[in-house]
Write a structure and sequence with these properties.
Number of domains of chain A: 3
Order of helices and strands of chain A: HHHHEHEHEEEHEHEHEHEEHEE
Number of strands of chain A: 12
Strand content of chain A: 15-25%
Strand order of the largest sheet of chain A: 2-1-3-4-5-11
Shape of chain A: elongated
CATH superfamily of the largest domain in chain A: Response regulator
Largest interface: A-B, 56 and 56 residues
Distance between the termini of chain A: 62 Å
Oligomer: homodimer
CATH architecture of the largest domain in chain A: 3-Layer(aba) Sandwich
Helix content of chain A: 40-55%
CATH topology of the largest domain in chain A: Rossmann fold
Structural class of chain A: alpha/beta
Largest sheet of chain A: 6 strands, parallel
DNA sequence: CTGAAAGCGCTTACAG
DNA sequence: CTGAAAGCGCTTACAG
């Protein structure tokens, strides 16, 4: 490949087929007004030249880019990668291309990503916000994972409260009375809802709610922050006998902390987690956790956006909550 | 958000600022020919209107989209997700947007993705091929992970041969003489090179090369196919005492197989793997493996593409091999 | 059934 | 230093 070849244009095709540009355009889009014979001629010409229509020009003319932007904190996190795939499946099926942008959880980058997408005239945006969102009336936005109450043409998140309630009551069922929590800062809805539900669930079980049993990791829910939080719990005079972690990443860190202290799961401390870790079966011990359904989450977010396109963004914004399901393994003490 | 607002255009800004469209355009791009006062007026007007330039129109006019396409088998696989992030960092820094496309390892979808990218007039493509690649002279392509000899303006892959050689000689150092291999079909370069290197390394160590010790998983390197391959090895009359797996995904399956048969790693069979599994420390047992450097892989691929842009695609295509590094844990028998 | 013309929103010679 | 004009490659009323 020594040099870059010229992309043939519609004018090239028209010339080759001996018709006008308008007729060539219609023929390729299978307009009923064009005679079958002309269509054949134009299509043959297009094939011969290897014509590939210029989407940029079409988008400019039709004022619709067929692009949808998707903004996630970190595509390298399995959770978001799978949500992206789910959304992509639905949107590509509907003729849209997905522009994926990472924010590294920085509000500033999120705002910048939103601007970039706007300048590409995306038809819509799927956003898992890290806090940098300002509602815009120039493009419909569907929020997922972390919601912004009152914003967007739709929202999709997991049933955070129900999920944590299930985890807590499973531990209560095992007879635990001293239950700790390794969570995330309550600045975004998923962190907030899981924390609040933990407190509510413990209270609902008739257990006393000890503030020293609640430890929060960092804003990126990192394993290392989970490790630190768990270390703090284990160092208490009367440490909890069971712990709920708010994510698989926090659980990874928590497991390390238990191991580093020479304790065993579930014998010394039981552990259950939000988010089912990938290959959770191979971990030592296998972790009891809430099943992943992030692919469905992406699909749903995409569907809500498509729905907004159709209804012209006038309907009441839907807020969908995805149910969660408990996968029982050994870390809770079962088996 | 009841309705979608109109995007202000450059004409709107020009009118607001009381200048011509050409002057407005120049002012916003900081052209030296425009007087400072006019620049200020135009910029203020743009800010007041919330003007966001239409990239589509600019791309059409300048015949450069500032888009780079990136085609991967599966974004939900950590390996590719991190490569994407690495590439994205480099490319966004250079003013390009990255369009990520999944192929699910289907050659047909890969070809389709390539077409879609061409019609969006991407300036270049980063491709981890699954076999559907046809070289095009319309856009520069950098191949990564799986290479196509003689194609592309550049190539980046890991040092597959050296990596497998390191794994084999580590096992030989442990005294193993019956070494098995759980690999992938040799249809793409990474599968082929790792397989070939295994055979060469075993021979180089003076061990006899038994064909029944070489088992291949499926084309997607799936854990389940690794499990099957390992089961076959364990069922042999004289099973290998150590096994090399060609990827972390295959290793996951292999570990399951060993466990299902009631055997232990490394006591009954030692295991080392290409690709360092994420949170490999938490697996039981912790897996000795070759370190991940996929982020660097993506960065390098992107750099090669940028380089091709600059040199006008005339230079000899570079083929870069990323070195690998052994992370010693317990599955090999060390400690 | 087909074509000439206008226009999407920019950039960029060209003229002044 | 500024503006009028042409053109990037399409689509789509409008006329015939």
């Amino acid at each position: 490949m020594a040099t870059i070849a010229h992309h043939p244009t519609l004018a090239d095709v028209a010339r080759e087929a001996g018709v006008s540009v308008s007729t060539a355009s219609r023929a390729l889009r299978d307009d009923a007004a064009v005679s079958p014979m002309t269509k054949r001629r134009v299509r043959d010409a297009a094939r011969r030249l290897g014509y590939e229509p210029n989407k940029l020009a079409r988008s400019l003319r039709t004022r619709s880019s067929s692009f949808v932007g998707m903004i996630v904190p970190d595509i390298a996190i399995g959770f978001y990668a799978r949500a992206v795939k789910g959304a992509q499946d639905v949107l590509e099926q509907a003729g849209y291309q997905v522009l994926v942008m990472n924010t590294e959880r920085e509000a500033g980058r999120e705002l910048q990503a939103l601007r970039t997408l706007l300048s590409h005239r995306v038809d819509g945006v799927l956003l898992a916000t890290s806090g940098g969102f300002e509602d815009s009336d120039r493009v419909p936005v569907v929020l997922f994972d972390n919601l912004v109450p009152g914003s967007g043409v739709g929202s999709v998140a997991r049933a955070n409260r129900e999920g944590v309630a299930i985890l807590v009551s499973h531990l209560v069922g095992h007879g635990h009375e001293r239950i700790g929590f390794v969570g995330a800062p309550p600045i975004l809805t998923s962190g907030f809802e899981r924390l609040e539900s933990f407190q509510a669930s413990v209270a609902a079980a008739g257990l006393s709610l000890r503030s020293e049993y609640v430890r929060l990791g960092d804003e990126s829910w990192s394993p290392s922050s989970g490790e630190r939080a768990m270390r703090e719990l284990l160092a208490l005079d009367e440490p909890p006998t069971a712990v709920v972690t708010a994510s698989d990443t926090l659980a990874f860190g928590a497991i390390e902390a238990v191991r580093a202290r020479g304790r065993r799961i579930p014998d010394d401390v039981a552990l259950v987690s939000f988010d089912d870790p990938l290959f959770g079966d191979l971990l030592e011990p296998p972790v009891t956790a809430l099943a992943r359904n992030e692919r469905e989450l992406g699909e749903l977010a995409a569907s809500l956006l498509l729905h907004a396109f159709q209804t012209g963004v006038r309907a009441t914004p839907a807020e969908v909550r995805l149910p969660v399901e408990l996968i029982v393994r050994r870390s809770c003490g079962c088996l």
